[in-house]
Amino acid sequence: MVRLCMKIIGLALSGALLAAPLTTQASDITVIVDGQSVIFEDVQPTIIDARTMVPLRGVFDMMGFSIDWDSNISTATLSSYGTTITVRSGDSFITVNGVLHTSDVAPRIQDGRFMLPLSLIAESTGAEVSWDQNTRTVSIITATRAPEVKPVQLELAEPLRFNPILEDISLSLAEVQKTR
Q1: d(CA 118, CA 83)
Q2: Left (φ > 0), alpha (ψ -120 to 50) or beta: where does 90 sit?
Q3: Which residues, in sequence order, are bridge partners of residue 93?
Q4: Could you write out the DSSP letters of every residue in 9-43?
Q5: CB-based burial, 74-99: b 16+ in 10 Å, e otherwise
Q6: pTM of this prediction?
């Protein structure tokens, strides 16, 4: 009878372990965004069910997102360059510009920080994400954004001069337009 009870307890514990997500506390994971290392102040990236989870702040700030956190419904909204991503703790999906994308690992709150599946979020913005197993490094190359347009001041090689032929042509065109 004792052996039977021990087997039942052993099976129950095995089932509980199998049902729990496989988590690796991995403070040795490096995240690089466009060549710059991300510094994680308190909660470090972790691997859950073969997915790298990172705190909301840090990576996405470096990717140029503004972040709005609604603690009442545990939802983050990330916005940048016409892309809006909505993520809620515990949901197995994210919304990108109104389109649902499923995640095999749900975002969650861990040690007081909102942890997100890095590749799903980054790739949904068009960024390239790669993992180097040897160095345990996630590299993100953000999608090309529209370049910032800066005014340019032109310098002329010589000053503009009055051209009587061009002046006559423009006057003739003005007269033609008046007759229409």
Answers
A1: 16
A2: left
A3: 102
A4: HHHHHHHHHHHS--EEE-TT-EEEETTEEPPPSSS
A5: bbbbbebeeeebbbbbebeebbbeee
A6: 0.62
**Torsional sign, CA 89, 82, 68, 124:** positive
Q: Do 107 and 114 contact (CB within 8 A), yes or no?
A: yes
d(CA 87, CA 121): 9
Write out pLDDT tens, residues 62-96: 888 999 999 999 999 999 888 899 999 999 899 99
Sequence length of the chain is 180
Strand partners, 24: 47
- For residue 146, the surrounding DSSP H or E stretch is none
Q: 45, 50, 85: which is closest to 67 by C-alpha?
A: 85
Instruction: Count CA atoms within 13 Å of residue 25 on its CB side.
Output: 4
